[in-house]
Amino acid sequence: MLYIISTPIGNMGDITKRAIETLEAVDFVAAEDTRVGGKLLMLLGIKKPLVSYFEHNKSYKGDAIIKRIEQGETCGLITDAGTPAVSDPGAALVAECHARGIKVVPIPGCCAASTAISVSGLTNKKFVFEGFLSESKKERIDVLEELKTQKRDIVFYSPPHGIEKDVKDIFSHFGDREATVCRELTKLNETITKAPLSTIISMIGSGEIPKKGEFVIVVSGASSDSQEGFWKDMSIEEHLLYYINAGYKKMDAVKAVSSDRKIPKGQVYDVSVKLY
Questions:
Q1: CA distances (Å), origin 215, targets 46, 93, 137, 158
Q2: What is the pLDDT of residues 126-157, one digit of tens each?
Q3: What pTM does this model have?
Q4: Domain ranges within the chain, ordered by starting residue
Q5: Does an H or E element contain 39, and which?
């Protein structure tokens, strides 16, 4: 049997009684990072064998874990923080257990996505979860282009080294929508910022929102007229200034305008050199 055990996303006080009881009862624990998992077990006073299970070893480690379960052992799957298998390599292990007829039991608890939605202040009653944006430029553009007409609020995860690029790229494709950026949820340095995307970009650039910790970005869904493009009534010059005023470097603004309008970068660059 495989137990999917949710753990705190920052505050140890958020762990559930059932999660503790399950960790005490299983034969072994599969952890995304055994150092993080080991620390959690130590804080709870639980001694259990730990095995690593993460993105780059999931194929062969998954087989080993399933073999042990098929031989009669019980396994508790944990991630570094929150609910395993949600934007997490644990999803592959869960899928394989289902395929082999192994019972999968959820032990619910903390999840950064639902926590962020609850404090976002965005009023849409529905949302979609995207998770982390791809590092691949093409995949990132394809996903954002697909999502920009989505009328439901959209939840993204972002690492500290990628938060500025992620917000700028979302802004570039979605326009200046209302958004809420949650940093270090439930931790000592938790911050929750609700503002237009352009303001959030400026706050990240100035350091008012530090590029430290883990982030959840909740972006409001598209309005009925957003499919036409937020820039449709702007000149190329105004379009460039829109991005520059939001903190873009000139050449990044040129690329963004070129992408928005589907026109050559050279045409936009010729306008940009006249700005200053």
A1: 30, 25, 20, 5
A2: 999 999 999 998 899 889 989 988 999 999 99
A3: 0.82
A4: 2-110, 113-227, 231-272
A5: helix 34-44
